[in-house]
Design a protein that fits this description.
150 residues, globular, alpha+beta, HIT family, subunit A
Amino acid sequence: MNACHTCTLTARRDAGAAPLWDNIYRTAHWDVVHSFNTSLPGWLVLVARRHMAAVAELTAAEAAELGDLQRRVSRALHEVTGCAKTYIIQFAEHPDHPHVHFHIVPRMAGQPAERRSVNIFSCLGVAETERVSEEEMNEVGAQIRKFLQN
């Protein structure tokens, strides 16, 4: 899958060449990473380790692991960020990322209405000057990793 940037990033994690924020936690079927182009600390992504374009392609083992991991990552985000809840979103529509992945986004208690529900996507794809710093992504990633490893 040469056209899939997600597969390239997965290979980088497999090779041990990814920074902490892009290699927070790995299971047999899923990788947990921090979104690189967000203004929201803790915007995590669960990435399928094998290429697939649709959720219907999940094996039973991948699906079972996914359900548990979504719950655990949501609990970790609650613990680390203090969020009131998490949003879980899946499209796999971006031309560079036609690969099943789930956004797990912390929704804070005092988050303004214009940044809730589908409007949360205004925090993604932001200018580099608005993005969460690599240092902060690594800090959040280390805390999430510690929670998930326990």
